[in-house]
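Sequence, structure tokens quoted for completeness.
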Amino acid sequence: MAPHQELKQRRREDYRYILDYRTRWADNDMYQHMNNSIYNFLYDAVVNAYLIEHCKLNPSSSPQHGVVVHSNNDYFASISFPAVAELALRVNKLGKTSVTYEVALFEKGVPEVRSVGEFIQVFVDRPTGRPAASGMSDEMRKGLERILVTTEPNSKL
């Protein structure tokens, strides 16, 4: 993952998929900002929304599914109810069975990024729970390649 100061400079244009999330009163903690545990919930949600919409993932019946093996987050500013969060997603690395996502959280109407996280999944075969011997499915790979960032970001989907 990029150094902290580089992540803090991220903009929506650096990502290829954006999903809106209306914060809830229950997302706030006693300090009146979104609790840090909610960020992981949202990162998981944007990744799975993308996989379902663009990679033909069917959570209940696909022969493979992604298992999270690592996640971390850098926080830059808080967000709180009733703000609308914009969850921005890209793929930074694509392996045979693994994918490294970068997820940024923006507040609608605010240019600066609020947080940037890393989320790594390994695709496993459903019956064994082991990394997919043949690698991830072609549909999954093609969908993930659409949001893979190498050097130049392109437009979101």
Q: What stands out?
A: The chain has one domain: 4-145. The two ends are 23 Å apart (CA to CA). Strands lie at 17-22, 64-75, 84-94, 98-107, 113-125. The helical segments are 4-8, 36-54, 138-145.
